[in-house]
Amino acid sequence: MFVGRDKELALLNKQFHSRKNALVVVYGREGLGKTSLIKRLVEDKICVYYHGRELSPEEQGFYFEKKKEELAEYLIHGQGKICLVLDEFDQMQKANKSFFADLQAYYDSLPPDRVMVLLISSQTHWVKTSMAKDMGDFESQISLSLELKEFSFMEMTDRFPGVSTEDCLKIYAVLGGVPAYLDLWDLNKSYKENIKDLFLAPGGKLRREANRFLKTSLRELPYYNTILSVLGEDRPKLNYLYARTGFSRAKISVYIKHLIQMGVAGKISSFEPEKKFMVMKGLYCITDKLLHFYYKLIYPNLTEAEWLDPEDFYETYLREGLEDLCAQTYRGICLEMMQLMNQFNRLPDKFDSLASMYGKTGLIPIAASNSQGKILLGTCKWSQEAFDRQDFETLLEDGKQVSDSVDYLYLFAKKGFSKDFKDYLQSQENLPQVECIALDQM
Asked: Is pLDDT at 97 greater than 80 in this prediction?
């Protein structure tokens, strides 16, 4: 299923319609739909496609030469501009140190304004860290480098028309916005049955996916498994990683750097109030949803996952943990929504910074301030119970880490807001401006 990617298509079409040849790099982790995007791009264009593979330079050249001949035929017959696609081109250069020099000579020999060369790669880490060096002078001829990323939650919901916001969020909490994973979800099955079939059943399509995916870019998997399993505990301080793993700080920094370059981990940027001493520093987390699910709930209990029946394992180790995972995902989605509202001037004031605050006495899911001294706070309740006054008081108390005075409060709740709380808001005259947003209103 091809959904979205309109911005990416527009950028690629602009390159194609330029008055000169174009050299474009499109990269992103496996499963994001890079090849599907290119297929959509060339639907109305002449395309010569080659998929790189692990071969000797001579054998690779043998296959690629056939594609060059195919391209030459199109050029001879003057059939307009042509797309030459080299998919997984990183495989072509692995065993051939002269690959980029040879490709540059070939590219320079092509007639002007006749060819768009698309270099596609799933090796995000290599593209970001080594490609420029490996390409040498040829790198300067790249006219566009386009990184494909996972779909955001808002984009992901377009793939599931007719599915409730709550159900979409529960899927997103486990699979994230990776199209190849989302395509595996069977809407004719329950949430539990999908989790069991994909992750727990023998032969489940995602049962070994976490390790398989990491092995595509990383060596020393035992050490990365250790780092990720500790990050999966959601105790994000670097000092805890150091104490828990026994690795040196230098070693931890190197491993985390590689995970960040892969796009599966990240440093947490906390909102910083005037009371800077209230903020925790040196925080890291798993950003990839499937890896977070796996290393938070399955990997710590892998012995049991191998031994128990999928139904027993789900009920014992996943049911409660999935609710916590969904709560974390809900907070992230609410924050993303607020950031978009701020970007498009949909909030009562413009804010300079808007992020979660990881305070020493508690987490504030949404916090913002601006140069006029205005303060906005928000919270998100993922529960079967409606948001009530006690939840409100908790936010006000936690908010003292930011400021003693708050101007705006944004409240998000899975099951809406209790009547008593609504009555309380109407009866108060000295409260900050309060906005209440239920999940089904998002």
From this structure: yes
